[in-house]
Each structure stands twice: as C-alpha cells, then as structure tokens.
Design a protein that fits this description.
The complex is a heterodimer of chains A (296) and B (242). Chain A is mostly helical and 296 residues long. Chain A has helices spanning 3-34, 41-58, 63-86, 94-116, 141-163, 165-175, 177-182, 187-213, 220-234, 239-259, 265-279, 288-292; strands spanning 132-134, 137-139. Chain B folds into two domains: 1-77 and 156-234, P-loop containing nucleotide triphosphate hydrolases (Rossmann fold); 87-152, no CATH class. Classes of the chains: A mainly alpha (296), B alpha/beta (242). Bound molecules: adenosine-5'-triphosphate (ATP) and magnesium ion.
Chain lengths: 296, 242
C-alpha cells in the first residue's frame, strides 16, 4: 500500500472522528451539568441531516440558510426534549433518566421514519465534487468542510466556555451545583442551555456529514454508541480529552477497516471501550480522584 | 432584618428542623452554635432557598422569601459561604470571585471589589491565577468567604469558616469577620466551635436536634453553666487550649 492510501485512511478517519467528537462532546456537556447520559444524543445528528434535506430539497433554501435553520431547529428540539421529558420528573433515578433518553431516542427515530421514510437522503456537497489532491491522495472537498466547520465550532465553544461569564457559569455549574445556586446562577437556565448546545452540536454534525454519507432515520443510534465510547474513553469530564478520544476512535476505526477488514468496523469502538475500562476505568484523560466522585 | 418563625425542614420524611425561631437585626453578628447534626447547616440552606420542603416563615425586611429560587435570594441580598467551602475547583481564583458577583452587572465596581477581597485576604492575591482546586484548605475557605462577599450581600451567612483549619488561618479568617463586622455588615455565623463564635458575635442561638434550646447575648451565653459544660469545655481543649 502506498503513502496515498494511508493519507486517504487518515482523512476518512479524522472526518468520522470529528463527528464522533461532536457527539461525544454533546454527551459530556449534558452529563456535566445534569449527571444524565443522554442516549438520544445521536438522534440530533440524524435530525440535523434530515431537516437539512427538507430545507434544501423541499424548501429550496441555499446551503448557508439550510445550515442555520437546521442547527436552530435541532437546538430547539433539544431544548424541548429537556422541558417535556427530563424536567417534569421529580426526584428521578439515574436509571429512570437513562430509560427516558432511550425512549426519546426511539420516539425521535420513529417520527423521523414517519416523516422521511426509510430510504437514504442526501444534500449536495458544499463546494462541488472535485477532489483535492493531498500528497498524492485524492480527498473529497466535503472533508475539508466537515473538518473546518467542526473545528470552528469547537474553537468558538472553547472560547465561550473559557472567557465569557455564561461559559464560566456553565463550567461552575458542572463543577458544583450547590455553589452555583449559592452565587446566584440560574441552574435551570444552564441545564436548558446545555441541552440546547448539545443538540446544536449534533445538528451541525448532521448537516456537514450528510453530503458525504447520506442520512436516514436509523443513523443516529450507531453514532450515539461511538460517541458514548469516546466520551467514556475521554474520561467523562475533560472536553479536550473527549474531542481527542473521538478523533482517535475515528482514526483507529478507519485504519483497522482499511488495513485489516471492514467486518470489524462497528465493534472497534466497543473493543477500545472495554480495554480502556479494564486498564484505566477513569478514562484516558481524567484524573482518577475526580473519577471516584462520579456516578457511573 | 431577617426573621425566621417556626421553621421546619424535612429531608424526605426525616424532620431536621422542628420549629426554629430566630431573628437578626441590621448590623448584628449572630451565631448559631450546636453539635453535629443539630440543624445549623439545614437552617442556612433553608434561608438560601436550597431546600425543597420547609414550613414556617422566612422574612427578609418583612417580605417572605420562603420557596424563592436560590438565585433570587442572592439577588435580594443574602449570600452564603457554605460548609465545606464548595469552591469551583476547575476555575481559577479570579473567576471564582467574578462568579461571586454573577448577579451584579457593574463590571468596574466588581473589579474594584475583587481588589478589596485581595486586601482582606492577601494570600488569595498571590494565587489569583491558580485553580481553586489546587488551593490549601485555608485558602479555599478564604475564597468561599470572598466569593460570598462579592455579591455585596446585605446579610452574609457563614457556615463553619473555621472547621478543619490551622489556628493561624482561623485567626486570619476571624480577623476578617471582625473587620467586616466593624464595617457594619450583618452576619449569621454557624460554628461548632462555640467559643470562637461567641467571641465575635453579638448574640447567639444554641441548636440541639432541630430546636433552639438557648439564646441570648454572647456575653450572657459565655457565662451560662449549660454552655460551659456542653460546648465550651470541649472546644477550649480541642481548639483553643493551645
Ligand atoms: N441531605 C440530607 N439528607 C438527609 N438528611 C440530612 C441531610 N442533610 C442533613 N441531614 C440531617 O439533618 C440533620 C441536621 O443536619 P445539619 O447538616 O443541618 O446539621 P449541622 O448542625 O450543620 O451539623 P454539622 O455541625 O455536622 O455541620 C442531621 O440529622 C442530618 O443527618
Ligand atoms: Mg453543618
């Protein structure tokens, strides 16, 4: 195999890895502010893709508008999900909450199948199909859109969380809910915001991914699984670690598929998860003292 | 200023407060003393709006603040430095203080207040860019205290600011309490260490298993036989004998 094949595998790995990273970060954001593992996280990606399909093909929106409207809608769906399904529960158990998110994920899938059917849908790539040559390997231009958009979003998110008051309030609430209440942070608002942001991340991932891989109602769940693995491998508490874990997962998956066999594609993530749980249960990028305090 | 009447608090079915009546006037330092599990923290949590199930009345300047959201209570002028400090560990000292002023919108004044906190606690100034989680216990206590002051509260609730700290640090923290007391701040101080609390406060209430069993001016209580026997004896040996 030549260098160009490796480069191709690298690009496809990092591309799908960046999608996993978005899903994983979505898990992490909700988990940090509420302690909930939201297993409906993958459905936000699916909805992002399919809503974009409708925006583009049925409503004939240009791509930038499609992008904005879709992300906005998915964000609203995420927020409504919290308001209608999570918030009304009084003193919910962790298990109860997980069941709710599973139910919500099944429901979202069902509604999506009802609206968009079982077939796959696509939208055009953002800038044509003419491959770009990178050191001999030909890379579809959508790859650069996916990476560019996702990394821009990640950087914006990082800057907000680091330097704005609301970002600090989100981190503070994740760190210590009681103290957040005591300094006057509206914790309820932060929880809503974290559902909104997580859903929005999924929506972004869905729109940029769909031109490459098409989208159908049942695509969310496997993505949630991979994203979840990345979140746990990343240590459930460290955004940078989570993103890196997502990227690594995509890369490993791509290289194993390309060099060994594509049969293993979907078990790799679980395999890595199991190994990490055996060797370093707190995740690769987390301090073990912190991990002791966690519910999972 | 703050009046609490027949306050009862429940954790699920367990009743932690069984009808507590206390009041604090403007400019007063009042302490709440009592053994482990007496209900001191529960009282402060009830005032701050952290408890779901409470009965009775909590009035701030005549207005009921019962069942008000915690963030609104901070906005009304009641701030708390909680037991166990609860600093925001992954954020630095400056950000912890800024978040203390979360309900305020006056940026310049906030910056000035942060400098004021650094004057009160020079150790914090040295560590302003360190993560709160890396501070020593004493520094974290100072930070929790400073963070509570940052909202410019009318009433400051302090829950066990001395617990687990070295005598020198305790002295430092209590001298700040003295100082803000002189500035006229109203304080409700919770302590297990009765002697320390009585020294700084004007009046005190003694709590036992969810009830007020004794109250009076601090100088009366210091003289009281019951207090001597039940609280001061052990704390003198334990903390301040040295
Ligand atoms: N979260 C909780 N759930 C159930 N019971 C609680 C809870 N917090 C406190 N209690 C109970 O309520 C009672 C009063 O507790 P509280 O923490 O108010 O006491 P305290 O006077 O602050 O004690 P300490 O000096 O140890 O801080 C105790 O019997 C305690 O076991
Ligand atoms: Mg207590």
């Amino acid at each position: 195999m030549g260098l160009d094949s490796y480069i191709q595998l690298f690009f496809s790995g990092i591309t799908i890895g960046s999608i996993y990273a978005m899903v994983a970060l979505g898990f992490l954001i909700i988990y940090s502010s509420t302690g909930i593992i939201n297993l409906a996280q993958g459905e936000f990606v699916m909805l992002g893709g399919l809503i974009a399909v409708t925006c583009h093909h049925t409503l004939h929106f240009p791509m930038p508008l499609t992008f904005l409207v879709t992300v906005l809608l998915v964000t609203v769906i995420g927020t409504l999900f919290e308001i209608t399904c999570i918030h009304p529960l009084k003193n919910p158990s962790v298990l109860g909450l997980i069941m709710i998110t599973i139910a919500a994920s099944i429901l979202m899938r069902g509604i999506a199948m009802f609206i968009w059917g079982k077939e796959e849908h696509g939208i055009p790539t953002f800038s044509g199909d003419k491959s770009v040559s990178v050191i001999g390997a030909s890379v579809p231009p959508q790859v650069f859109w996916i990476l560019g958009v996702i990394f821009t979003v990640l950087i914006i998110l990082f800057l907000i969380s680091k330097y704005t008051l609301i970002g600090k309030a989100m981190r503070a609430t994740a760190a210590d809910r009681t103290a957040a209440h005591l300094v006057g942070i509206n914790v309820r608002k932060i929880v809503l915001l974290s559902f909104a942001v997580s859903a929005g991340l999924g929506g972004v991932a869905g729109v940029v991914l769909t031109p490459m891989t098409l989208m159908s109602f049942d695509r969310g769940t496997p993505l949630a699984l991979k994203g979840f693995c990345a979140t746990v491998v990343g240590g459930l508490g460290n955004p940078a670690g989570t993103v890196i874990a997502g990227l690594l997962l995509g890369l490993i998956e791509s290289f194993v598929t390309g060099l060994v066999s594509s049969h293993y594609k979907d078990v790799i993530a679980l395999f890595i998860l199991i190994i990490v749980l055996f060797v370093k249960p707190s995740g690769l990028f987390s301090k073990s003292e912190e991990a002791k305090l966690k519910k999972f | 200023m703050l009046v609490i009447k027949n306050l009862e608090a429940y954790y699920d079915r367990i009743q932690a407060l069984k009808g507590i009546t206390i009041h604090i006037s403007k400019g007063e330092v009042v302490s709440l003393i009592g053994a482990n599990g007496a209900g001191k923290t529960t009282t402060l949590h009830a005032i701050s709006g952290l408890l779901k199930h409470i009965e009775g009345e909590i009035l701030l300047d005549g207005r009921s603040i019962k069942n008000t959201a915690p963030e609104k209570i901070v906005g009304m002028g009641i701030a708390q430095s909680p037991e166990g400090r609860h600093v925001f560990a992954p954020l630095d000292v400056l950000d912890n203080l800024r978040l203390g002023a979360y309900i305020r919108s006056d940026r310049q004044e906030t910056a000035r207040d942060i400098e004021w906190i650094f004057e009160l606690f020079p150790r914090l100034a040295e560590r302003r860019n360190n993560l709160a989680g890396t501070l020593s216990g004493g520094e974290q206590q100072m930070l929790a205290f400073g963070r509570a002051l940052m909202s410019r509260p009318k009433i400051l609730l302090l829950d066990e600011p001395s617990t687990g700290l070295a005598p020198l640090i305790i002295k430092e923290i209590y001298s700040v309490i003295e100082q803000i007391k002189r500035d006229g701040k109203t304080i409700l101080l919770v302590e297990q260490n009765a002697k320390l609390a009585l020294k700084v406060s004007d009046r005190a209430y003694v709590l036992e298993t969810g009830k007020v069993v004794l109250s009076g001016t601090s100088s009366e209580l210091v003289q009281s036989q019951d207090i001597q026997r039940a609280y001061l004896g052990s704390s003198v040996d334990g903390f301040l004998g040295k």
